[in-house]
Structure formats: C-alpha cells, structure tokens
Amino acid sequence: MANKKKNRGWKIVGIGCGCSLFILLILSGLYLYAGWLGYQEEPMFVEPLALSVQLEDSYIPTKPQEEKLFSIGYPEAFTILFYEEEIPGGGIQTVRLETWDYYSLALSLTFLNGELIAEDQLEITGPVDLASLPYYPEQFIAFMDLDQVLSAGGIASYIQIPLEELYMEEGVMYFAEGLSFGLKDNELVYIESFAISQ
Questions:
Q1: How many C-beta atoms lie closer than 10 Å to residue 3's C-beta?
Q2: How many domains does one find in the chain?
C-alpha cells in the first residue's frame, strides 16, 4: 500500500514538473517572438554586399526638363513621388511628380510627368555654397525594388526604418548619404536627395 502511494506521489511530481516545463516553454516562445517583432521595428544599419543587379532603362528627361538642365544645370536637391491614378475612360497611369530645387538661384521647379507645372521662388537667407549632388533624378524610376535603387544610386550603406502601419502598411524608409527613399511592398514610391554643403 505504501509502495502505491509512493508511485502515485512520483507521478504527481512528474506531471507537475512536465506542466511547469510546458508553461515555461510557451512563455519563453512568446517572449522571444515579442523580442523578434520589436527587433523588426527597430532602425537597422545595413552594408549590402556588392550588387550586380540588371537595371531597367533609366528615366529619359522630357524636352522641358532638358531645356532646364541645359540652361541652369542639375538641381542641388530633388524630390520624386511615384503613384498611380485612374485616367478618364478607364485604366491606370503611373504619375511621376518631381521637384527640383536650386538653392543658389532661389528657384524651385515642379514637373508632373515631365511637364513643367510650377516655377517658385525659394526663400534663402545668407550665401549658398553647395557641392554637386552624387545623384541625378533620371537614375530613379517608378517602382524599382530595393536592390535596383541601391545599384542605381551606387549606395554602399544605409539605415532601414520600418514604418508603423499607421503611416504606411508594408512601408519602409531608407536613409543613405544625402538621400532618403521609401518603398511600399518593396517598390519605390518616394525618393529625396538633400543639398550637400561644401
């Protein structure tokens, strides 16, 4: 009789230990998963390996853009936004909205699909001494993937910041030297170069 009680006692202890271990494993898994999710949301510094990406043809400047490039040269900073919109009669077209900034001329040009739609004066205080940009607007086309953007810009390292879903679902911002760009579903939707001081 005493032997049966001892065996039953060991079974209860074994079941108790097994349940405790099972709960501990579940809690550890949840903790590790939460840590992994937090890690995914943190900014990350990346130095990609040398890329050998086959690039699509670069953007070809339109006649109005070529005229500005010929008369005043490349911009000292630029912003390009890519999006799609419905066209009358059905269908969807890709829109390229560009702003070229010339701080030394206090001038900003806005192009919609290559057509000049605005010419604005910038408010500049003090002398401007800017270096030439290492990037050109025509290097970047709509919906490039990350490897294509890195290859087109010759980008050696960057910081990656996942965007909260509140701002853009599946969106990631990247920051490189003198450049920031945003991808949604691994497609380029926004790129901005910054003026670089001498």
A1: 7
A2: 2
- Torsions phi, psi of 95, nearest 5? -110, 135
Contact in structure between 110 and 122 (CB atoms under 8 Å): no
- Residue 9 tokens read as 């006692």
Q: Which domain holds residue 26?
A: 2-42
- Is residue 54 situated within a structural domain? no
Residue 39 has pLDDT above 50, yes or no: no
pTM comes to: 0.72
**Pair (69, 147) in one structural domain:** yes
User: 145: which residues sit within 8 A by CB, 6+ positions away?
Assistant: 183, 186, 187, 188
Residue type for 29, please?
A: G
- In 3D space, the residue among 51, 77, 59 whose CA is nearest the CA of residue 180 turns out to be 77
